[in-house]
Structure formats: C-alpha cells, structure tokens
C-alpha cells in the first residue's frame, strides 16, 4: 500500500478510476452510498469491486476484538459565533477565546493569532499575560503570545489528558461551529481559517507534530465540516467513480485535508510552551473575582465550557460527542459517510460519532457506541 502521509492522493489515479467507471457504466448515480452487495447498478457490477493492491487501501477490521474503548467529550458550542473579543473589567483587560464547538483544533492557531492582534492593540505596556485553560485553545494562545515575546502563565484545572481537546478526532475541518463574524469584522472567520490552515500545513511539513496531510473519502451526505473548507484551502472535492477502499464499490468525493493527532500534537505544543519560557500552573477558577485577583492585568479566557464559571453566556452550550476507539490499523485515509466518520491514527482508529446538543454527561453511553460501530459495519458490509 502506498504511504500517502505527505504526498497526498495521486489525482491522476482518481481521474483514471473515474474514467474507467464511466466507461464500464458502473457509476451508481450521484451521492449513492451502497457498499458491495447493495442494490442497483453497483451491485450488478460487483465483480468490478476493487481488491487490495498498490492503489487501493484496506478496509478497517471492525470486529469485536478490535474495540479498545469508548469515550465521550463535550464540545463547547456557541451559537452565533466563536467569541474572540475584549471585555475590560476594571483594571484588568479580559479577552475571550472560547466557543469553538467541534472545530477547536481546526480554528486554534487562527484564533490565537486574533488574540495576539487584540493584545497588541489593547494591552499597552503590559508584558505579562495570564492564559486560563490548557486545552488546545489555551495552549495555542500561550504559544502565539510567547513567540511574540510576552511572558505567559497558563492556569488549568485539569491535566491535558482530561481536557475535551484530548478527545478530538481530529480532522482539520470547521465542523459543528457557528461561522458568524463579529460586527464590524465580516472577514473574521475566513481569516481565522486561512491563518490556522497555514500553520497546520507548516506543522505537517515538519513531520513530528502529529499533523499529517490526509485525504478524506466522502460518501453520500457525509462530509459535514469538510463542505465548509474554502476552495483555496483544498475544499473543492474531487469526484471519483469509486472510492479506493478494498471491497467497496461506491462513488464518492475526495477532499484533501489534515489529520491532527491530539495525543502527539498537544504534548508537543505543551513542550514548546515550556521551552519558550511559559509556565503551566494548576488552578481552579470558581468566579470572575478569582480571575480579577490574579497578578496579571491582561487575562485571556480559554476555558471552553468552563467559561460559565466566569461570565453568563446563554449562547454557550455543551454538545456531547461519543466515539469508539479501535486498535490501531494501517489505514492512511479518513472516511465520512452518512452515518459516521473514521479517523485512523497511530494510537487508535477513531469511529464517530454523536452530536448531542445540551448533553453534558461525559460518561459514554453503551447503546450509542453500539450504534456507531453498527453504522460502520453496515457501511463496510461485504468489504
Ligand atoms: C468527540 C469529539 C471529536 C472532536 N473532533 C474534532 C475534530 O475532528 N476537529 C476539531 O477541530 N475539533 C474537534 N473537536 C472539538 C474540539 O475538541 C474542541 O473544540 C476543543 O477541544 C475545545 O478546546 P478548548 O481548549 O476550548 O477546551 P478544553 O479542551 O475543554 O480545555 C479547557 C481548559 O480549561 C480548563 N478549565 C475549565 N474550567 C476551568 C475552571 N473553572 N478553572 C480552571 N480551569 C478550567 C480545563 O481544565 C482545560 O485546561 C471534537 C470534540 C469532541 C468531543
């Protein structure tokens, strides 16, 4: 099997597949998503189903013995838009960076760059900054500020492996996030996406940050946030006659994006923050008064859902996401189909997932996880 880590998919290969599919008359109609053994034109042509080979990737092993764990995380969703703005409180300049929903990893560096811009505009002579929260938003914010020469202390209640960020997939795509712009800044969201994409692209080229370029094979109405990647950032899908997965005979689309592995990326980011002179300290904030009592006069709130301890924001809601983790497998692609998605990483194959607005219980629900697994088995049935 070819390793697609850095090269991306061979576009000519897909065009050839598309042409072959058309010539054989095996295209099952736009958006069709039946696997081998399904109904209609595709099933009739089942002898044409691709087999594993140099340009066809293996299907996952979804057997019971491969299941390692189930997990649930609570996305900090904010209706309207992500909140990146200043809210002066007495002698403290409070800045907010929260509400990234299902796209916190994706938007992280772009939002951190916006915070740096606001700090430069508003913080005057202050050089010491407190960052509240050490999930992906707090850590990228701290990193940007440190790299720009500020002194930064990061305060966190949880260790890294207990944050929502640790549970992210994570695909680079603006999924499950309100894409609004603040008043007076109609270009905000596009700018955040571009800045973040550029930074992750650089990290993918570095090779040791847990960031790799990956195709996502999209079938039917799968795709979610991929549909919102601007075309200049690779969001225009390539339509193919058959997805190159062994045993499948389904048409689909290929979107070239990135996979970010939190168990590699977040510890690496933490080390960079420390290497730049940042400090990470345990602290729990129960109210805004605790924050205003900090010695720093510039404070960036990156507490995600924990923001509710500081400010009343009725737009901020939890959105539970459950996933099933399978033992690692060598599958250098991602997959999105109508009933789920699959992100194969080095530590696990992540099968998603649920979107449960207003649910904040972090205990995985066995029935929901069973449905996730069943949906993927149905998709790959016959593979
Ligand atoms: C199942 C799942 C899959 C996901 N997949 C993707 C994906 O593919 N791509 C993507 O881009 N995003 C994905 N996300 C979304 C992403 O995980 C979140 O948007 C992101 O983690 C939010 O980061 P955060 O730093 O704001 O919050 P968190 O990671 O929750 O960090 C919050 C920090 O604040 C601290 N804190 C909170 N309250 C307090 C307090 N009172 N006092 C002190 N400290 C406090 C916590 O200890 C922690 O350090 C996914 C999320 C889930 C649940």
Task: Report what the structure shows.
The structure is a single chain. This protein is α/β, with parallel strands linked by helices and 383 residues long. The protein has helices at 11-24, 40-44, 104-122, 136-147, 164-167, 188-206, 262-275, 288-292, 366-379, and strands at residues 67-78, 83-89, 92-98, 128-132, 151-156, 211-218, 238-240, 252-260, 279-282, 298-301, 316-326, 334-337, 340-344, 349-352, 356-357. The strands form 2 sheets. Strands 1, 6, 7, 8, 11, 12, 13, 14 and 15 form a 9-stranded mixed sheet that branches. A hairpin with a 4-residue loop joins strand 13 (340-344) and strand 14 (349-352). The two termini are 17 Å apart. 45% of the residues are buried. Residues 73, 75-76, 98, 100-106, 133-138, 156-158, 163-165, 167-171, 283-285, 302-304, 306, 309, 321, 323, 353 line the site of flavin-adenine dinucleotide.
Outline of this structure?
By secondary structure, the protein is an alpha/beta fold. The protein contains nine helices and 15 strands.
Q: Which value, in Å, is the CA radius of gyration?
A: 22 Å
CATH class of the domain at 75-201 and 262-317: Alpha Beta
Report the principal-axis shape: globular
**Approximately what portion of the residues adopt beta-strand conformation?**
15-25%
- Helix content percent band: 25-40%
CATH architecture of the domain at 75-201 and 262-317: 3-Layer(aba) Sandwich
What are the distinct ligands in this entry?
flavin-adenine dinucleotide
Number of strands: 15
* Sheet/helix structural class: alpha/beta
- Number of helix segments? 9
Low-confidence regions: 1-47
| Oligomeric state as shown | single chain
Distance between the termini: 17 Å
Spell the H/E element sequence. Answer: HHEEEHEHEHHEEEHEHEEEEEEH
* Mean pLDDT over all positions: 88
């Amino acid at each position: 099997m070819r390793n697609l880590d850095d090269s991306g998919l061979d576009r000519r290969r897909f065009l050839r597949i598309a042409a072959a599919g058309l010539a054989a008359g095996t295209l099952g109609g736009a958006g069709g998503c039946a696997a081998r053994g399904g109904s209609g034109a595709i099933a009739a042509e089942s002898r044409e189903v691709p087999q594993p080979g140099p340009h066809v990737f293996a299907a996952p092993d979804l057997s019971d013995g491969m299941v390692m764990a189930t997990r649930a995380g609570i996305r900090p969703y904010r209706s309207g838009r992500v909140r990146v703005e200043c809210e002066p409180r007495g002698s403290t300049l409070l800045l907010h960076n929260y509400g990234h929903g299902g796209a916190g990893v994706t938007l992280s560096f772009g939002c951190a760059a916006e915070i740096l811009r606001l700090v430069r505009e508003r913080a005057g002579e202050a050089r010491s900054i407190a960052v509240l929260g050490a999930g992906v938003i707090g850590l990228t914010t701290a990193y940007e500020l440190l790299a720009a020469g500020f002194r930064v202390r990061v305060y966190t209640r949880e260790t890294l492996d207990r944050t929502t960020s640790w549970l992210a997939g994570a695909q680079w795509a603006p999924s499950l996030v309100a894409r609004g712009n603040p008043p007076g800044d109609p270009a905000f969201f596009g700018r955040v996406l571009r800045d973040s994409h550029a930074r992750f692209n650089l990290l993918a080229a570095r090779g040791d940050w847990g960031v790799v370029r990956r195709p996502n094979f999209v079938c039917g109405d799968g795709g979610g946030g991929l549909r919102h990647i601007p075309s200049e950032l690779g969001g225009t899908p390539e339509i193919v006659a058959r997805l190159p997965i062994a045993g499948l005979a389904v048409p689909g689309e290929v979107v070239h994006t990135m996979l970010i592995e939190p168990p590699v990326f977040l510890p690496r980011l933490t080390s960079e923050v420390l290497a730049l002179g940042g400090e990470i300290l345990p602290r729990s904030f129960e109210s805004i008064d605790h924050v205003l009592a900090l010695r720093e006069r510039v404070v960036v709130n990156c507490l995600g859902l924990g923001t509710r301890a500081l400010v009343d924001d009725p737009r901020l809601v939890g959105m539970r996401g459950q996933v099933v983790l399978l033992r690692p497998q060598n599958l250098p692609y991602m997959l999105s189909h109508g009933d789920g998605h699959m992100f194969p990483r080095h530590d696990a194959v992540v099968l998603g997932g649920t979107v449960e607005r207003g649910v904040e219980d972090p205990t995985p629900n066995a029935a929901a996880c069973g449905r996730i697994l069943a949906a993927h088995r149905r998709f790959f049935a016959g593979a």
